[in-house]
Amino acid sequence: MPAVAPAAGASASTPTARWKERTGYRMVRTINVGSSVAAYSHATVSGGLVFTSGMTPHDPDTGAVRGETIEEQTRLSLALLERVLAAAGTDTAHLLQVQVHLDDIDADFAGFDRVYKEMIPAPHPPRATVGSHLPGYRIELTAIAALPED
Question: Which one-letter DSSP state was computed for residue 58?
Fold first, then answer.
């Protein structure tokens, strides 16, 4: 893992800089999932783990929400998750935990779960699936994954 340069004005001898170097801390941003107007990275890597931001069913080129059904939106959200994990150096086989927010959990859980089982390899990682009000889309998910050992 490449060492992380100290932030502007920070010395390599600061506790934060030493922690970042020791844990391999880095932020991941990839053009493969589009750009964001909000202030966040697509993932953080630290201590051999990858923590993703929320994956939503948006078109990477336009930012527009894609898919009418929960199945379509789940497929796209998981495809974007795969891209972020790849940019961080891992994949869905190394998932440790997934958190899923569904806008209408009663109507959408079965369709979501069908696609999830198709796209995420067994054994399936621990998962929390909860109902949440989402602004204009039906699903958002985050994940924690391990980096593969060399």
Answer: B
